[in-house]
Amino acid sequence: MATDYKMRVIIAGGGVVGLVLANALEQAGIDYILLERRDEISPTIGQSIAAEPNGARILDQLGILDEWKKQGQALIWWYERDNNGEVLLKTDGVKLGGSARTGYDFIFGERTKYLTTFYENLKDKSKILLSKNIKIVEETDSGVVVKCEDGTSYEGDILAGADGVRSKVREEMWRLANSQVPKVVEHDRNAMFAEYRALFGISEAPPGILPGDCDFGYDKNRSTLVFGGARNKAYVFIFEKLDKICRGRDIPRFTKEEAMAFVKKHSDFKIRPDLTIADFWKRIDNYSFVCLEECVFKLWTWGRIACVGDSVHKMTPNIGAGGNAGIESAAALANAIKWVSENSNGQRPSKELVEKALQKYQTQREARAAAMVHSAGEVTRMQAGRSFYHKFAAKMVRLYPGDFIADYLSAYFSGAEMLSYLPPPKASVGGHQPFNPSQGWSRHESKLKRAVLALPFLAMFFLANKVMTVANVVPMLTPMIQDQAVTWNMTSMPLRTKFYNVKPLDDIWVPINIFFTPALYGFDAICRTQTLSLLADYGIIVAIWAFESVRRANILTFAQIPGLFTFLGQLRGVGVISPFYYLLHYISSPVENMQAADMRLGRLNYALVLLPTLLLTHYIPGYAMFHWPTFSGRESWLFLWQMFPVWVYLTAKVLSSFIPDTTLSDRFESPTRDLPVIKYTIGTLAAVSSTVWVFTCTTALLKNGISGVFLPDGLPGQATDFVTFTREYLQFDEIFLFGNTFIWLAYLFWDLKHAGMIKTKWIQLVFYLISSVLVMGPGTTAGLGWLWRETVLANTRHRDAVIRSPSEKSDHTEKMVMN
């Protein structure tokens, strides 16, 4: 039996996807022929195309990217403009989402030059056959036969349909599959639809349109996109909503006369205040006027046939995803074909082997492709103001433009395919956010799943709320408030009822202040000792929450407003309230949110002032209220300390305003710049906390024992006097606060372990926790645990991150097909 059979692939279509696949197969050492229906490989048509980071990495692997860079222009500035051409936002967020994180810019250029570049990169151009209009496809027992209208026929082992949105290969695949899966075929025949149409043009750049400028124009039911290209070129797109949604064969094609009418209709659209569509049209070189089809088909493969690119996933062009999605699919298909070649033992590959690989190719790509189609369509609708939701979404994007746009694009690029049999290019492993096939669009961790996993926090809330009930103590407080005096063991101390001279505010704090008087006035030495230790430990929790609040990954989450939780904690007990903070933080902050190093980054100016802020607003008032020489002075400090969540916010805001905010540059150049400051702050507070802990424990050992200070004798609700209630309430407050904190840290370390970012065993982590609490106290333990996680996030990458050097051999092909 012969063992030197050379597998052959037939590629239908000589566009972007077909030529990328041809280059990929050539470099895999797999024989192919490419059938192109036109009589030239790079026709001059009015379209442009962008190489985005997901596509650029594959082009880089193929050795095409450098040449394409010479032909194209990198995107520099992203503008969004209203229908008068006025700027709504200007951001470099695209640059952040591109080269800073992935290693690649957005390179925009003419489609015809793109095709020429791909074609010229091929070593054996005799495999490219022009004027080959496919007539019929037949499957045999041993392969697939493609017959063309000129009478020629070609036999191969696999047929790749890269022939675009009106794919002949897809039609033939439906015909062959119809007898076995008629419902699927019927669905796909009617699945494609168009809600928008667009004119694409290439022109001489009008004055003011600079290379790298990208202008998006917003209006009702229409929008524009203009890109300033290289060599004084500009690329213009005009989008308009159709009167009705068209489907399948009813999607219209347009005449030249209709294109002229379309341009006339929108000639007054202002790209910029002094620049209209009419100004572009005066300089137009060539153009295309088409409907914008959208669809992801169910049937991608049948037998030995696989469709790829626009023939199975067609999207609107507003985010430039279509061509790059096609390049990704070409890479995934090439990986599958390579696997078939390597596993056919030198013989003609069996139909079963081919089908297995092609089905895996579809499984590998369809969810991500569907996410791209959906997202591209949503951007089209957002820019054309299709609904209230889309208008609202557009406004939300502009609240945090540099973050939202960069994060949106980074999530899109993150999980991109690459050629598994070629090493990752050097550029792709040096960015702040490595490519990761287990993350990104369609692979986001479920927030619902995280919410279910975090249900123990709700249980902790209900338990704390039950244990730390205040119902029985309220009747004890009422006469004290009326008499303006705190009485205990025949001793009466004046109770201050005014401080802020704002009655509602003073009325809030007076009854709460009574709970602190046993410690402040020395009624209960145990309570005094425990509360002092709690204040030191609590400061570290406040610092952790404060650092989380300015983390870029926590934008638009509840973690941004820690003051809400600390303020409620002052009113009800932080042990009761903290589970809500931890629940919401855990749900909204998976590790994938910080796959980009700059997303871990916080504001350096805020980090620099946090330590003095906490000293001024929490530590000094907290300890002054215990040690001030007069009782009235202690009450004044108590009133001041009770409002520390507000003072922290205001003081940090004022102090940080005197220090330049370097976030915009740090996210590009130094995403770990805040880490030394964070370490210093948490380290300093941990030193204070552990010192207080050691002093407290030493003092307790000489008197009543450590357990008596930190462990309650009973439940607060069973106390018969307010002093006992206060001691047990604050003891439980500390127990629940740090119980919740350690559960939260366990969840965060669970995430790190699942991501392969730490290898420490659970038994070791538990040992570290117990040992640290006993020696240094719960506050220091929490601070050091959180700081450990912070260091891991700053210096370690997810286990699936593609960070190998180009010299290392990839094993992704086997995983791609078999997993």
Low-confidence segments, ≥5 residues, pLDDT <50? Answer: 809-819
Give me the secondary-structure category: alpha+beta
CATH superfamily of the largest domain: FAD/NAD(P)-binding domain
DSSP helical segment count: 32
Radius of gyration, in Å, reads 33 Å
Under CATH at level 1, the class of the largest domain stands as Alpha Beta
The major beta sheet can be summarized as: 8 strands, mixed
Measure the end-to-end span: 31 Å
Q: What CATH architecture of the largest domain would you give?
A: 3-Layer(bba) Sandwich
Q: Report strand order across the widest sheet.
A: 6-5-14-15-16-13-19-22
Beta-strand percent range: 15-25%
Name the shape in a single word.
elongated
Overall number of domains:
2
Organism: Microthyrium microscopicum
Keywords: FAD, Flavoprotein, Membrane, Oxidoreductase, Transmembrane, Transmembrane helix
GO molecular function: FAD binding; monooxygenase activity
InterPro entries: FAD-bd, FAD/NAD-bd_sf, FAD_mOase_fung
How would you explain this protein's 3D organization?
The protein has 819 residues and is an alpha+beta fold. It has 2 domains: 8-429, FAD/NAD(P)-binding domain (3-Layer(bba) Sandwich), CATH 3.50.50.60; 447-795, no CATH class. The protein contains 32 helices and 24 strands. The strands form 6 sheets. An 8-stranded mixed β-sheet has the order 6-5-14-15-16-13-19-22, with helices on both faces. Helix 1 (16-28) packs parallel to helix 10, helix 11 (351-383) packs across helix 12 (388-399) and helix 21 (574-588) runs parallel beside helix 29 (722-754). The longest helix is centred in the middle third of the chain and has 33 residues, at 351-383. The protein is elongated, with a radius of gyration of 33 Å. The model is unreliable at 809-819 (pLDDT under 50). Belongs to the paxM FAD-dependent monooxygenase family. Residues 7-374 form the FAD-binding domain.
